[in-house]
Write a structure and sequence with these properties.
The structure is a single chain. By secondary structure, the protein is α/β, with parallel strands linked by helices. Among the domains are: 6-177 and 213-219, Rossmann fold (3-Layer(aba) Sandwich); 459-593, ANL, C-terminal domain (GMP Synthetase, Chain A, domain 3, 2-Layer Sandwich). The protein is built from 22 helices and 27 strands. The chain has a 5-stranded parallel beta sheet, with helices on both faces. Strand 3 (59-63), helix 3 and strand 4 (83-87) form a beta-alpha-beta unit. The longest helix is centred in the N-terminal third of the chain and has 17 residues, at 35-51. 48% of the residues are buried.
């Protein structure tokens, strides 16, 4: 069956009659939601939204962590022909107000009492007239503005009072939705400026679902953990696609609960962003310290590297040495991720070849893909059939890609968005004729595999006219477990420098073992021994760089880079401009010192 709309995904999912369409944790236990229960919950939500006056074309927001109610609300909104507006749960009140106001959302689903208080505080700045709360909140105990509780309803009432089926009229209307009908407005996470609402139609997303997992074996009985924010297009696309194929979704609302969730649920499919794969690598490096662990680990890696070609071809090496390395080391790495994952996929940001090589050496083939919100999202992906490490795979069969004269990746096809919400000028600027300008630099090899070098706007041009692509260098630095985040700077300067945010848990352990005395992170990062440690890490990476790429100065900061403090987007990408502005004075001092030491 080929999908035409996202409503086709819903009907296909509920007609499977699975006992475990979804899983969620409640009262310390993982509890199933069947296909029939999902159908009933969505039907009840559709009926309740109709009573609230929601009609085709209305915008309805969802402000929540990942949980079954997120998808239930989404399906109900889409079946009505209304437009889903996802809102990141981590946004500040001001950012939340902007998204609600700009989209013109009239109803908002939200998850918790905390989110309820946040929305009530900015309600006068929006057009929202009704709030639906997913948690069973006792309204009389919530501190809200006078009379505010009267605009709230509890979502569980929709389920309790709803019918088990859509009524015939509602189902007919849902099935009449057309591919060109607008399905969602997704606000980009904004690495370079104010968020823009990306308008995606039912046909945009459905056409991408039809092709994004070709070559993968997806079927009922498989399990995947839904932990990437559903406010982001990648996670939402993945969940739609897996539900369509009958894969059970286990919802993990909080990233800090992911390690425990993996051990409890034991998924068979893992779709993640590079940040999670980096953390698994860092934990492995930390665990494999000291004798004899380190010696065994290094031996196992050497065996893995000798058998890497077989892993990348999707085969299990047969040599006795590999079997022993697998038993002693590799199986334990997989056990930390649940032990049953058969398919590993990475997207949302560049994985980095060195990290992909490490995973291949420990027996894990990661299928890296590439896409953007504006392309619904997948443009290319490595599959079990067509896989080339260091690339993002072959371009989807229903898309065309060409490389512009300046190296920018251009794409056209049915999954390319229709434009930015209320921004006609920016929509026009996003296209070159009918080709969407991705803003990424890349190339396509003779066999059709796409490689992405860096973001066009993030290329650093030195005062000497040399271009430096920062992401590959940053990925190399992050391969050292002592490095949390790396941000290269140097645009219009004579040379590049790097800002490093340490992995503080590991650094503090190292400091204690080296008798480094500290009472704060600022004191720790300023210590000469620590400064020398990170300088050595940078010098190690410098050995593999061209002369003009070498990092001449290191700024070690006592801060973690997180989405909460604005240094990263909710999908863990660097907000380079934010970081540069935050450390502007220190950066200027670095370059001033360099000029003093090496005057022009």
């Amino acid at each position: 069956m080929s999908l035409s709309t996202l409503n086709d995904v819903f009907f296909a999912a509920v007609e499977r009659n699975l006992e475990r369409a979804m899983l969620h944790r409640e009262d310390g236990e993982w509890r199933p939601i069947s296909s029939s229960q999902l159908r009933s919950n969505v039907a009840g939500t559709v009926r309740a939204l109709q009573k609230l006056g929601v009609r085709k074309g209305d915008r309805v927001a969802i402000l929540s962590e990942n949980r079954p109610e997120w998808s239930t609300a989404d399906f109900a909104i889409l079946l009505l022909g209304a437009i889903t507006v996802p809102v990141y749960a981590t946004l500040t009140p001001e950012q939340t107000a902007y998204t609600l106001r700009d989209s013109g959302a009239s109803v908002v689903f939200l998850s918790t009492e905390h989110q309820l208080q946040k929305v009530q505080s900015i309600l006068p700045q929006t057009q929202v007239r009704r709030i639906v709360v997913m948690d069973r909140v006792e309204m009389d105990r919530v501190e809200l503005p006078s009379g505010a509780a009267s605009n709230c309803q509890l979502m569980n009432q929709f389920f309790d009072e709803g019918a088990s089926e859509l009524d015939p009229q509602a189902e007919a209307a849902a099935r009449s939705i057309q591919p060109d009908d607008l399905a969602t407005i997704i606000y980009t996470s904004g690495t370079t400026g104010i968020s823009k609402g990306v308008m995606l139609t039912h046909g945009n997303m459905a056409s991408n679902i039809n092709y994004s997992l070709l070559g993968f074996e997806m079927h009922p009985g498989l399990i995947s953990v839904s932990f990437l924010p559903l406010s982001h297009v990648t996670a939402r696309h993945v969940d739609f696609t897996l539900l369509y194929h009958g894969v059970t979704l286990a919802y993990c609302p909080l990233m800090e609960n992911l390690p425990a969730t993996l051990l409890e649920v034991r998924p068979t499919v893992c779709v993640s962003v590079p940040r999670v794969y980096e953390k698994v690598y860092a934990k492995t490096e930390m665990t494999a310290r000291g004798f004899p662990k380190r010696a065994i680990y290094q031996w196992a890696l050497s065996v893995g590297r000798d058998n890497k070609a077989a892993i990348l071809a999707g085969k299990t090496p047969a040599s006795p040495s590999w079997k022993l390395a697998n038993k002693l080391v590799f199986s334990k790495i997989r056990a930390g991720m649940g032990g049953k994952v058969e398919t590993f996929i990475s997207g949302g940001a560049p994985l980095g070849r060195e990290l992909a090589e490490w995973y291949a050496s420990v027996g894990i083939r990661i299928h890296e893909g590439y896409g953007l919100t504006e392309t619904s999202p997948v443009i290319a992906v490595n599959t079990p059939v067509n896989h080339r490490i260091g690339t993002v795979g072959k371009i989807l069969p229903n898309l065309e890609v060409r490389i512009a004269d300046d190296g920018e990746i251009l794409v056209r096809g049915p999954s390319v968005f229709k434009g930015y919400w209320n921004r006609p000028d920016e929509t026009q600027n996003a296209f070159l004729d009918e080709w969407f300008k991705t803003g990424d630099i890349g190339n396509v090899d003779a066999d059709g595999y796409l490689s992405v070098t860096d973001r066009k706007k993030e290329l650093i041009k030195t005062s000497g006219g040399k271009f430096i692509a920062p992401q590959p260098i940053e990925n190399s630095l992050k391969l050292n477990p002592l490095v949390g985040t790396a941000a290269i700077v140097g645009d219009k300067r004579k040379f590049a420098c790097v800002i490093l945010s340490p992995n503080f848990a590991l650094l503090e352990d190292w400091a204690r073992s080296e008798d480094v005395i500290f009472s704060s992170r600022a004191e720790l990062t300023a210590h000469p021994k620590v400064q020398a440690l990170y300088q050595e890490i940078v010098e190690g990476v410098n050995q593999n760089l061209a002369r003009f790429e070498k990092l001449k100065r290191v700024l070690l900061v006592p801060d973690e880079f997180t989405p909460d403090n604005g240094a990263l987007t909710p999908t863990m990408k660097l907000r380079r401009r934010v970081i540069e502005e935050r450390y502007r004075d220190q950066i200027d001092e670095l370059y001033a010192e360099a000029e003093t030491v090496n005057p022009p």
